[in-house]
Design brief:
Helix content is 31%, strand content 19%. The protein is an alpha+beta fold.
Length: 396
């Protein structure tokens, strides 16, 4: 299985991610990972940290001369701000100069303090911070490289920011990546992008924040990833859990699930036709993408579509949310940390990474292989015989 573990705090020395289960022989370079991390810093409405945080990485283990060894891969992402925080975040015995006792509503502060018995919200917020997603994107960059060996690619775009909705009838293809990343809010609908920017400016003017919705699209996803057999192997459940784990995400939709809920069954599903020239799923083609490329907990080989809803960020540039000082128990307003007006454009990149990690894990479970070459051979053999599967009969 492919699994990953991140470590590190927002203002600590570094973030670290360990990725275990990768086959040997996957080509990986520092530049490929840093390019993905740079995409995470995109988007109008991001805070000043995105302008000077360079996400310098070190490939610590598991890669030799640009290829994975089959052993765990460890990646370090240095924090540019560490020199300013050496005393406040020191791992050595002592006490911090300031204690944060006014938790932010909507953040992990208060419940984390209660759960772990902390008297300082910084003991919670440093790990709960979305800075941790940089480590996920580093791991996701490697997972994307593995998926590319199978002809699978992912792209995301912003479909709603605040109350401004894009015309989402047209969906971007992999070739549109440069255009989307070049847009200020990573919106495929250029006519709506300016309205989204205006909404961000209006929120920034009053010190407020905005949420929104992004969509991740998967092209060339192999048929049969996931399983209908066990609840914890259903691909839709795995994807939902992975994307819901991203900070500030409060909802995940596969395909057009909420629209489907209002449809009659006779029109809600994706009709199936057969085209011998389309070998993506053995010639079987879904005419629409209402199910998001998933049926019965398994990928169908058609377009994978997932949406994630991010709430407005809990940290405001003009704190007005009422809270209680945990030390005095008096009513007050929450403390202020440096923050973004919105992180929705960056959410798409982080969600791509989480989707990639889930798909890569299930591809390895399906096709196996200790090396990339072996995994690709197994995949190609499966695809070559896919059209035989429906007619295969059990032995008498």
């Amino acid at each position: 299985m492919l699994r990953f573990l991140t470590a590190g705090e927002s203002h600590g020395q570094a973030l670290v991610v360990t990725l275990e289960g990768l086959p040997a022989g996957l080509r990986v370079t520092e530049k490929q990972i840093q390019d993905e991390l740079a995409r995470r810093r995109l988007g109008f409405g991001r805070g000043p940290r995105m302008r000077f945080e360079v996400d310098e990485i070190v490939l610590v283990a598991g890669i030799r001369h640009g290829r994975t060894l089959g052993s765990p891969v460890a990646i370090e992402i240095k924090n540019t701000e560490w020199p300013k925080w050496t005393e406040q975040m020191s791992p050595h015995p002592g006490s911090p100069e300031t204690i944060l006792t006014k938790p932010r509503p909507g953040h992990a502060d208060l419940v984390g303090m209660q759960k772990y018995g902390f008297d300082d919200a910084r003991d919670v917020l440093e790990r709960a911070s979305a800075r941790e997603t940089a480590a996920r994107v580093a791991a996701g960059a490697v997972a994307k490289l593995l998926l590319a060996e199978l002809g699978t690619s992912l792209i995301s775009h912003t479909v709603q920011l605040g109350s401004v909705k894009a015309n989402d009838e047209a969906r971007p293809a992999p070739g549109d990546l440069e255009r989307i990343d070049g847009d200020e809010v990573r919106c495929f609908d250029a006519s709506t992008s300016a309205d989204m920017v205006a909404a961000i400016k209006a929120a920034a003017k009053v010190g407020d924040s905005l949420g929104g919705i992004i969509e991740v699209l998967g092209y060339g996803v192999p048929v049969g990833l996931g399983s209908h057999v066990h609840y914890d192997r259903k691909i839709d459940g795995l994807l939902a859990q992975a994307v819901m784990s991203i900070q500030a995400v409060k909802g995940v939709e596969l395909g057009r699930a909420f629209d489907q809920a209002a449809m009659l069954g006779s029109v809600a599903h994706d009709a199936i036709t057969f085209d011998p020239d389309d070998q993506a799923a053995g010639g079987f083609v879904r005419q629409t993408a209402r199910a998001g490329g998933i049926e019965g907990g398994m990928t169908t080989g058609s377009l994978l579509a997932l949406r994630a809803a991010m709430k407005p960020l809990a940290t405001l540039n003009r704190p007005v949310l009422e809270t209680v000082d945990v030390a005095t128990k008096e009513s007050t307003v929450s403390f202020k940390e440096r923050t973004d007006v919105t992180a929705v454009p960056a959410l798409g990149v982080v969600a791509e990474s989480m989707v990639a990690l889930v798909l890569a894990n299930e591809a390895l479970r399906k096709f196996g292989g200790d090396s990339v070459a072996e995994m690709v051979r197994n995949h190609d053999s499966f695809m070559a015989h896919l059209d035989e599967a429906p007619s295969a009969a059990a032995p008498e």
